[in-house]
């Protein structure tokens, strides 16, 4: 396999960020341009965007919530408090929660969509508690 150049990868990741912000979240172009003008912020967004394609494909290929709910013995849904009820993540979460009435909702205080980056210890503690409930 041929190694891709740093410039190619940087451009590809920048495009991933722009698509995710503009097409997925509906963020207006001028706001995306403002984020892009902050070099440190944009570099950080590029770094965390590398798994976007595979994550999106996994989500799209996953069973529908009703099918998943029928198959699962237990369903725990985790949402960041700051996303609750707000588009796009909170409203998508609410849709999944409605379709899986047996699910238990767990809210991470003070967090939004990036709790795995901004508060990994808080998220890990919750997952650990949930694991011990079933162990």
Automatic annotation (TrEMBL):
Keywords associated with the record: Plasmid
Species this protein is from: Paractinoplanes hotanensis
Name this protein carries in UniProt: Alpha/beta hydrolase
């Amino acid at each position: 396999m041929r190694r891709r150049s740093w410039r190619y990868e940087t451009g590809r990741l920048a495009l991933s960020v722009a698509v995710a912000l503009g097409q997925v979240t509906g963020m207006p172009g001028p706001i995306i341009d403002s984020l892009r003008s902050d070099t440190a912020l944009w570099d950080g967004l590029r770094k965390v965007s590398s798994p976007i394609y595979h994550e999106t494909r996994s989500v799209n290929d996953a069973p529908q919530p009703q099918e998943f709910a029928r198959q699962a013995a237990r369903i725990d849904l985790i949402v960041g408090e700051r996303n609750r009820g707000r588009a796009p993540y909170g409203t998508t979460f609410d849709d999944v929660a409605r379709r899986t009435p047996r699910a238990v909702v767990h809210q991470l205080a003070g967090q939004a969509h990036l709790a795995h980056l901004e508060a990994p210890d808080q998220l890990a503690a919750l997952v650990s508690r949930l694991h011990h409930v079933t162990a």
